[in-house]
Amino acid sequence: MRNIHDTCAQTADEHGAPGDYVLGANIAGFVKVAQAMDALGII
Length: 43
Fold this sequence. Notes:
mainly alpha
């Protein structure tokens, strides 16, 4: 749970929206899916 919070907060900060956990979670989730698709050779 702590890792999820840290990831959301850090991702939001990196994209110019400090404290916006929804934005951070959405971007982090998208990146994770894109990395998995890349690893599988889908994209």
